[in-house]
Design brief:
With 283 residues, the chain is an alpha/beta fold. The protein is built from 11 helices and 9 strands. It has 2 domains: 56 residues, Helicase, Ruva Protein, domain 3, CATH 1.10.8; 211 residues, 3-Layer(aba) Sandwich (Rossmann fold), CATH 3.40.50. A 7-stranded mixed β-sheet has the order 3-2-1-4-5-9-8, sandwiched between helices. The protein has a two-stranded antiparallel ribbon with strand order 6-7. Strand 2, helix 8 and strand 3 form a beta-alpha-beta unit. Helix 1 packs across helix 3. It is globular, with a radius of gyration of 19 Å. Bound molecules: S-adenosylmethionine. The site of S-adenosylmethionine (SAM) has 21 residues, from helix 6 and helix 9.
């Protein structure tokens, strides 16, 4: 890349990151998309606009109304932190905490779609898993607030990754209040995928989103990750409702991704989500 290109990317990134809707996004992703748009567009102004559009598509569109994170933490703080019965499982978190989490998860369109199936989703998947000590939730949205529904022992280490620093700070606050052994990372998982070993990696409705930025992003990410189990899911409905075509189309997408890999796969079709639990050859 020439010096000129580098300074155009710097300029574009600083302009995009000045926008209120974009300033919390991982700068590395702004620069990645910015570089693509600079190569395609006629002017810096056009490239800035196109970069913002793409960032909206892959992130902002899911947060129609931004949560007030201070008020949300206050709401969580008001809940009774004590588990209902002391079996040591996150699933026994207080009813109040669950109710607050449920309410807050509605603020992320993708996480919200899972609410009608939340219990069924995690109970079904975890029934198929051996004990899990480490979980990585990639492009997590507000899914870490579903932690009280996960049948996991308290000591399980949970790592949440997304591109929004303000959302991740809020999730870190939730972890502290709910007594979760959790941590967060702001990261563009296309350019900088985590390679450390995990028992379970969640890729919930994430791969199609990454492919909007880079056609080979899903396959490249899968290649880089080091998970014993992967939970890969796709939306089973668009805003207009459930669509048979969508399920078929995403089943084919998954099959192309799985092709030639030494994977053991279980398929689950929930009302709002199509999920594949993969035991990889990295066990
Ligand atoms: C379709 S939503 C899925 C959210 C969550 N996994 C769920 O199912 O509840 C996609 C998420 O990916 C995040 N995201 C988009 N591009 C990303 C990237 N390059 N690296 C990390 N996260 C990204 C967005 O901010 C958004 O929260």
């Amino acid at each position: 890349m020439s010096v000129n290109n580098q300074s155009s990317i710097d300029l574009l990134a600083s302009q995009v990151l000045q926008g209120a809707k974009y300033r919390e996004i991982a700068p590395e992703l702004v620069r990645r998309i910015g570089a693509q748009e600079l190569a395609k567009r006629r002017s810096l102004k056009e490239a800035v606009k196109a970069t913002k559009n793409k960032l909206h598509q892959v992130g902002g569109a899911y947060q129609e109304s931004r949560l007030n994170y201070e008020k949300s933490l206050a709401l969580l703080r008001e809940t009774d932190p004590e588990p209902v019965e002391g079996s040591g499982q996150a699933a026994t978190s207080s009813h109040q905490l669950r109710a607050a989490c449920y309410q807050l998860m509605q603020a992320h369109a993708s996480t919200r779609e899972r609410l009608p199936i939340l219990d069924e989703f995690y109970q079904t998947i975890f029934a198929e898993l051996p004990p899990v000590r480490t979980v990585l939730d990639l492009a997590c949205g507000l899914n870490p607030l579903a932690y009280p529904w996960l049948p996991l022992p308290k000591e399980t280490q949970f790592t949440a990754v997304d591109i929004y620093s303000d959302m991740l700070t809020f999730i870190q606050g939730f972890f502290a209040l709910a007594g979760v052994n959790g941590r967060t990372q702001q990261r563009d998982i296309i350019g900088n995928p985590p390679t450390e070993p995990y028992d379970l990696i969640l890729l919930l409705k994430t791969l199609p989103c990454l492919e909007q930025v880079d056609k080979s992003a899903a396959a490249d990410l899968i290649e880089a990750l080091n998970g014993r189990f992967l939970l890969i899911s796709y939306p089973a409905q668009s805003l207009g409702g459930r669509s048979k075509g969508m399920v078929e189309n995403y089943t084919q997408q998954f099959e192309r991704l799985a092709d030639g890999r030494n994977w053991h796969v279980q398929r689950f079709e929930f009302a709002t989500e199509l999920a594949f639990l993969v035991q990889t050859n990295r066990s």
